[in-house]
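Example record

Each entry pairs one chain with its bound ligand, S-adenosylmethionine.
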Amino acid sequence: MARKGALRLIQGVRDGRSLSDQSGSLRALPVAEQARAARLAAETLRHQGRADVVIDAFVNRRPAPQIADVLRLAVVEMLELGAPAHGVVGAAVDLTRTLGARGQAAAGMVNAVLRKAGAYQGWADLAPQPLPEWLRGPLVEAYGDAVMTAIEAAHQRGAPLDLTMKPGADPVPGADALPTGSWRLQGPAQVTALPGFDEGQWWVQDAAAALPARLLAPQPGERIADLCAAPGGKTLQLAAAGAHVTAVDISEQRLRRVTENLARCGLTADLVAADVLDWRPDVAPDAILLDAPCSATGTIRRHPDLPFIRDGHGIAELIELQTTLLDHALSVLRPGGRLVYATCSLIPDEGEVQIDEVLVRHPGLIVERPDLSRIDLPGIDPAWITEEGGLRLRPDYWADRGGMDGFYMVCLRKPG
Ligand SMILES: C[S@@+](CC[C@H](N)C(=O)[O-])C[C@H]1O[C@@H](n2cnc3c(N)ncnc32)[C@H](O)[C@@H]1O
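Structure tokens for the complex follow.
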């Protein structure tokens, strides 16, 4: 059941739909099988390049797309996830037979290929799935070949589960403290079953994603606008620090997640469903966190489908939107106030370059470099600080601890 569900998810990705957008398509399966199908599909995409090397070693020509995906699923299940070959091969042959006349004809080939693939030596040494050229090109230019290889290796390793604790909450048993203040659980976990979930003691948030709110240093009683706020990880941090938070997002549906998260954690914020570009508060905020919409190319560890469903189109429009959002946010900020701009992107045009340009457009605007002596901003590696004074985080950082999402963030101060 889970394998058939995983194959359906992968085919959805081939048609351009993300895995998360398809989660409803598994509703007919028991919950545990839904989770298994989702994991199988994600791991198959994550390791597709390596699976193809193995398959190519045993076929004369690449099979039809659907059959190739059945083979990839089985290869990844055997060689990456360690499932016993006999069960996987039998299930893959059965799955192939359900794929119409082409499947019936291919069942023998699938059986023969997978029997050999199960005994493949050298899986661990195969190069990770490369990023598509539209993304790889700009990233090699920005970071160089060696870093690109390290980033691809980090994508292959996937992501652990990071938690941000409410101040004073007890850590989740088995979680490790990270230098920057987040907590990390290695290995898969059912989030809602973890201790402290129902009590709202913590929320799921990648260690890198937790840093923009820390960089902003929210103070009790400050008026802070969280712009582009949903699903609300940063809103929760700002509210937990005692700030009066207004969370603005264009998507009412996504704002419902913010409402749920606030309620679970016993925190409050004013929620506004609006386009930030139309939003003008009556009282200018003391501080703003602008987590702008972006290519999300820093989150591929957790979204291995992203390279398959994007082709680089739309990034120029996103960059233009980020510029407009940044200018608008600065226009509503109180004089002397601070603004943290953040994107979960690896592309410098969505980070460092935006800041180079905003400083030219807004004379008097300054960058507040991260202060490494601040006790509420622990664990910042000086190597993360960029020339203009922002923080560039990459998936290959903290490789021995399980990596982090790619992110860019910077704290700006508006002239008084
Ligand atoms: C990167 S996500 C924000 C993540 C969020 N800050 C968090 O920490 O959970 C970007 C958000 O921007 C919102 N968005 C995109 N364009 C917007 C606009 N013009 N005005 C307001 N929100 C917008 C999207 O709906 C999406 O929820």
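The pocket of S-adenosylmethionine is lined by residues 228-234, 248-251, 254, 275-277, 291, 293, 344 (CB under 6 Å).
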